[in-house]
Amino acid sequence: MNKQISIIDSLNDAQRLAVSAPNQAMLILAGAGSGKTRVLVHRIAWQVEVEGLSIHNILAVTFTNKAAREMRGRLEELLQISAHAMWIGTFHGLAHRLLRRHPKQAKLADTFQVMDSDDQLRVIKRLVKGLNIDDSKWPPKQVMWFINGQKDEGVRARYMLESGNIYQDTMLMLYKAYEEFCDRSGLVDFAELLLRAHELLRDNEDVLQFYQDRFKQVHVDEFQDTNTIQYAWLRLLTEGKNNLFVVGDDDQSIYAWRGAKIENIYNFQKHYPSHQVIKLEQNYRSTGNILKSANALINNNDSRMGKELWTNSEDGELISLYTAFNEQDEAYFVVEKIRKWVDDGGLRQDVAILYRSNAQSRQFEEKLMNTATPYRVYGGLRFFERMEIKNALAYLRIMSNHNDDASFERVFNTPTRGIGIKTIDAVRLIAREQQISLWQAAVILLNNNSLSARASNALKGFLNLIKQLSGEAKEAALFEQVKLIVEKSGLIEFYKKEKGGKAEVRIENLEELVNAAQMFDFDEENEENLNELDMFLAHAALEGGEMQADDYEDCVQLMTLHSSKGLEFKLVFLVGLEDGLFPAQQSTDDVARLEEERRLCYVGITRAMQQLYLTHAESRCLYGKETNPRPSRFLKEIPVEFLQEVRIRANVARSMSMPKRAKYSAQQEGTYKLGQRIRHAKFGEGVVLQMEGEATQERVQINFQGVGLKWLMLSYTNLELL
After folding, report:
1. Residues that are catalytic
2. With helix as H, strand as E and coil as C, how does 495-542 read?
3. What pLDDT is attached to residue 2?
4. Which residue among 149, 215, 388, 614 is least enclosed by CB atoms within 10 Å?
5. How confident is the model at residue 706 (pLDDT cuts 50, 70, 90)?
6. Residue 544: its pLDDT value, please?
7. Does domain 113-185 have CATH number 1.10.10.160?
8. Does domain 666-721 have CATH number 2.40.10.170?
9. d(CA 482, CA 19)
10. pLDDT tens profile 336-349
11. Domain 298-382+549-646: top CATH class
């Protein structure tokens, strides 16, 4: 009895019920912040201390090594024993352990080696090249995703039939060639670990019987994130035993794009008919108003098992809703609120800015840097450090300066255009011998007819593309030059071929680069006498070169909503809540995808512990064009009694008496207002959209009829009021 009391004494009623339940199939619906890891750990401790199971009779599966280490550490503390010998780990880690113990039955060499994703990609690149397959039509990364996707569904190449579709049939041929190569070389990729472990149990009855007898209880964390092969593996281990204990939350299933099947949590009830469901609904993270808002939102999803988060804590502050004029104002507002939070004694590390798309980070990064606020992009790169952005900037650099060798090296074959290793080595050799640029060396090679017809055409095509872009960009505005590169370099089509959600992210980032160019604040009288393009490139290089905050530094956290799952922050800003952005445009006409977007919003809301700000913009620049998006439908699903509107618009539209400046015209000494029409000598007529800064640092944003949005420093600008 004392053991029982010591294990469950600190738990609430629902947690105690889950921990002390009879050994049978259990589905624990664990809401956000309800202590699911605590329940898993105490459940295992209960089975050891009270039920008398050996730690060797328990299997516990997590999704990350970090979660596995945390679970092992908590168990050791609770049981006061070493849990080193326990089978606690990720799906991949446990599958690898099985295969190492039974290589012969798994049809593997004793010395088989595990490849990481980089190794796997290199193998596929060699196969594509060796089979003389056009890697521009069948990019190696896309081949890798195809292969891994089939394995995640439990499908071997030998079971697939040709379809008559040349694309699919070539993918199938590469899948077969890849399997043969891996079998011959004793190599196993991550997806293969799971598939091979499943086949090991399925095809070897004695092995299956051994592990079914050994593992009296099988525990799974984040069950809603399992894919087809993972669930099939779990079912084999627990077949006829009714001993699968899973913890999950259908309301937090947000990874369909990487293979997770929300259906698994629903099918569990059919596959284990004598199961018991226990709901963990008491939340220990957030205030009452935050939880009530989250409940109201997620109740709009039809396909859910249903639960209602609640807390013993106070209702706390209402959720703040800020309607920004545009994305700059949105970022300005958020950074100002963070500054006030810090001034009032709060830590930056307790603050998170959450967004749907990676591309949204740029505006916030810029404002945070301008105010010298340390920040970290969680689980990703800063905007100007992202591969697709670096590639586009390299095109701009070589367009501006043909002799930029670093940019030449970066984009001569990105996208793939058939310039082979021998060709580029020949270019490098001439450049080295004659101490000239790669561009000049390429011209010499072509003039001397030193290359084969195919190699010559490929290299000439690249040089002609850059010349063409340079010519078309000469008289274009900066944002039009960037747009030209994005559209005509082939980068958009190149990245469209990527799968797993990466294509959409990369294309959004490239579109945001166009916006960055349109919003760029160009100082026409800069001391370096740089043109607008070169100054923009210098700006990008300097911003990209700025290091993120050190791991130990108190800094603001920026992250996508997908990256935020499992985390919590005292102050959260959930930004960009506009239809077409969040929910994403491609989800609005698909019920299943829209429900996943709503679950993603639910995850974002439930990250907040004390304060939550929801923001959207009335105007947003997308791909160089100003749009007027509607507020997200998710905002309408939160009852007004939990919201307070914040409409501090002093930084956007204000009347002010302008101090005299040496460069002002007489008309500029009057009053500037939102919507004021003006004329600029170079850009023509426009409308005032926003003002910020003071004294010599004051600047104004104007939407010009001919060139779009421009930020201008009033200290250096002649404007005529109309």
Report:
1. 36-37, 221-222, 252, 607
2. HHCCCCCHHHHHHHHHHHHHHHHHHCCCCCCCCCCCCHHHHHHHHHHH
3. 60
4. 149
5. low
6. 58
7. yes
8. yes
9. 58
10. 999 999 999 999 99
11. alpha beta
